[in-house]
């Protein structure tokens, strides 16, 4: 395999199976793809590939769009390995460990946080994730939330203000006071560094009215809503997400029939996070029910130090196939085009003409191998904006 990344044109030749997601999975065999100035300029039969300044020989392997991880929490300090071990020994997950990470994150310097964010971003890139969203939510003061988003912005444009993650210890018993802080001084400090606003709408975190207040305040600052919804219990999160036109409702583990119907009848994407169920021994979302109703489904890692400490989208694809009964094709689409829909992006998640040339070459002949060979490092090559990065 040879490649010469940089300016000019690049042909990815000798592709055994090309997943374009244009439309749906859009699988082509014996294909080639041409990149010009970081964009897909041509897709077609291998024998008809145009000449280019440089070539990347896929050697008969599968090529697919780069993964789009639309839900992650990469800005934090410390770890919660002991909490994980306790869960594996039988303790239930309640979300209370978030405050442990808040304390560690507040105490960390910028250099420590920047190192963690960079390490996790590089780790994800090596596993084929070319676009990642990441949230604040482990600072929970105006200065720490703004700092978290500023550092997140060094590795991605998809940054989310999650000041309403939990009520911090110093506001115990005064959740409404904390919501006022989030909607006022904290949002003023954080909004310049964010594209999205999120809230953990859950028993033990924020109720429907508190969540609505945060999301509406975020919208008033030009931020687009996303919602942590219906993870631990049935609740109002999904309905609120659809009501406010959120880009996504994330987790979606405990859904009523009306929740499913609302998602199916809206542009709000149901983002499923199987790493969280794996790491907390919780029930997996009913993905087949969502797809049967016509909802748009995305897959994401929920990478965080407590409930899903994985940056691997291939692992999440394998989990979705094995535990949520998605087909390999459905899981790959959800991890690429589905994630793009959850970020309201049309330039990523597919390899149609004009798309960003974000793609991965597998060390395998088919996308099916992502689930067929779980845990195996199958990502051979990663291109981001047409440039070889991993």
Give me the secondary-structure topology:
Elements: E1 9-19, E2 27-36, E3 39-45, E4 54-57, E5 62-65, E6 67-69, H1 81-88, H2 98-107, H3 110-126, E7 129-135, H4 142-152, E8 158-164, H5 175-190, E9 196-201, H6 208-220, E10 224-225, E11 227-229, H7 237-243, E12 248-251, H8 257-264, E13 269-272, H9 274-280, H10 287-293, E14 297-299, H11 313-323, H12 328-342, E15 359-362, H13 369-372, E16 379-384, E17 387-388
Parallel strand pairs: 1-4, 1-5, 6-7, 7-8, 8-9, 9-10, 9-11, 11-12, 12-13, 13-14
Antiparallel strand pairs: 1-2, 2-3, 5-15, 15-16, 16-17
Helix pairs in contact: 3-4, 4-5, 5-6, 8-10, 11-12
Report on the architecture of this protein.
The chain has 390 residues and is an alpha/beta fold. The protein has 2 domains: 9-66 and 350-388, Urease, subunit C, domain 1, CATH 2.30.40; 68-342, TIM Barrel, CATH 3.20.20.140. Helix content is 34%, strand content 22%. It has 13 helices and 17 strands. The strands form 2 sheets. Strands 6, 7, 8, 9, 10, 11, 12, 13 and 14 form a 9-stranded parallel β-sheet that branches. Strands 1, 2, 3, 4, 5, 15, 16 and 17 form an 8-stranded mixed β-sheet that branches. The longest helix is centred in the N-terminal third of the chain and has 17 residues, at 110-126. It is globular and about 70 Å long. Mean pLDDT is 96; it is low at 1-6.
Strand tally:
17
Succession of helices and strands: EEEEEEHHHEHEHEHEEHEHEHHEHHEHEE
Category from helices, strands and their pairing = alpha/beta
Quickly count the domains: 2
**CATH fold descriptor of the largest domain:** TIM Barrel
Number of helices: 13
In angstroms, what separates the terminal alpha carbons?
A: 13 Å
Strand content: 15-25%
- Determine the CATH superfamily of the largest domain: Metal-dependent hydrolases
Shape: globular
Alpha-carbon Rg, integer: 21 Å
| CATH first level of the largest domain | Alpha Beta
The CATH architecture name of the largest domain reads Alpha-Beta Barrel
Oligomeric state, counting identical vs distinct chains: single chain
